[in-house]
């Protein structure tokens, strides 16, 4: 796995950690618990796990889609990280 894909996996992992923190924060305010929980699992299974398995080309589209969705639904930092992850995946696949 090249350097770009490693950094993409790290960015996806940081986005997952921030979603976990959003989930824990949502425990205080129950209506806000659902979206971080969903995004956490989608980020893990559709982006991070695929990059780590060596199937980065399959993680490209979910990373941009989840990034935009997180931006729209309040996950500003994880959304930005997933968009950067998308760029890193493209760089890694083209290298």
Written overview of the protein:
The structure is a single chain. The chain is mainly α. It has one domain. The chain has four helices and no strands. Helix 1 packs antiparallel against helix 4. The radius of gyration is 13 Å and the shape is elongated. The mean pLDDT is 88.
Question: What are the defining features of this structure?
Answer:
95 residues, 0% strand
Please outline the helices and strands.
Elements (H helix, E strand, L loop, with lengths): L2 H26 L5 H19 L7 H13 L3 H19 L1
Helix pairs in contact: 1-2, 1-4, 2-3, 3-4
Model regions low in confidence, pLDDT < 50 over at least 5 residues: none
Largest sheet geometry: none
Order of helices and strands: HHHH
Quick one: overall form?
Answer: elongated
What level of helicity do the residues show?
over 70%
Summing up helix and strand content along with how strands pair, one would put the structural category as mainly alpha
Rg value:
13 Å
How many angstroms separate the termini?
A: 11 Å
Number of domains: 1
Give me the count of strands: 0
Number of helices: 4
Beta-strand portion reads under 5%
Please, what is the average pLDDT?
88
Offer a concise description of the structure:
The chain is mostly helical and 95 residues long. 81% of the residues lie in helices and 0% in strands. 37% of the residues are buried.
């Amino acid at each position: 796995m090249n350097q770009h894909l490693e950094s993409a996996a790290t960015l996806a992992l940081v986005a997952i950690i921030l979603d976990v923190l959003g989930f824990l924060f949502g425990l205080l305010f129950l209506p806000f618990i659902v979206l971080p929980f969903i995004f956490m699992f989608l980020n893990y299974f559709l982006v991070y796990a695929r990059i780590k398995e060596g199937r980065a080309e399959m993680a490209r589209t979910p990373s941009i889609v989840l990034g935009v969705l997180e931006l729209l639904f309040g996950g500003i930092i994880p959304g930005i990280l997933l968009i950067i992850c998308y760029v890193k995946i493209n760089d890694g696949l083209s290298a």
